[in-house]
Amino acid sequence: MVIPGGLVVLTDRRSAAGPLVSVVEAAIRGGAAWVILRERDLPYGERAALAGELRALLPPGRLIVAGPDPLGGDAVHLAEADPPPRAGVKVVGRSAHGTCQTSTEDYVTLSPVFPTKTKPGYGPALGPEKAAALAGDVPWLALGGIDTPSRAAACMAAGARGIAVLGAIMRADDPERAAADLAAAR
To answer: What are the residue boundaries of the Thiamine phosphate synthase/TenI domain, all occurrences included (predicted)?
Structure first.
C-alpha cells in the first residue's frame, strides 16, 4: 500500500479558475502526485464520471475519493463522521481537526494548519508543530492555508508526508506553476 504524500490536490469545481478537469490536469503537470475528489454534492452518476476522468490523468491508485464509496477505485478519504468504507478499499484517510483519533486509517489530514481563505474563520490554526504532535505516529498531510512555498516547507519540516491544497491550486491563474512552486518546497 502506498500512502499519499507530496502535493495532494483537493478539488472544488466552484472555486476553480477554469474547468475542473483542466485545472487538475495542470496541477498534475506541475507536480501534484495525488488528487482527492470532493464534489460530494454531485449526483452519483456525474461524480462517478468525474472520478473516471480524473483517474485517467493519474498513475493507478492516485485518485482518492472523499466519502466511503471509492467510485470504482480503491482509495477513500473520510470526514470525521463518515462510516468506514466497504471491503476492498486499499487506502483510507480521515480528516481531523484539533484531535487525531484513528483506528484503521492509513493517514490523516490535519487542518487548518494555517488560516485559510477557503474557510475563513475556521480554526484556530494549528501550526505545523501542533499538527505533527497531534498526528503522533500516524502519517499525516497538512491542510489549510498552505498557499506559499515557505508554508509548504514548514509543514514538511514538521514531519508531514505531504501537503493537501485546495485554494492555492483551484483559484490560481496558473495552476501548473502554483503546483510546481508548492511541490518543490522542502
So the answer is: 7-169
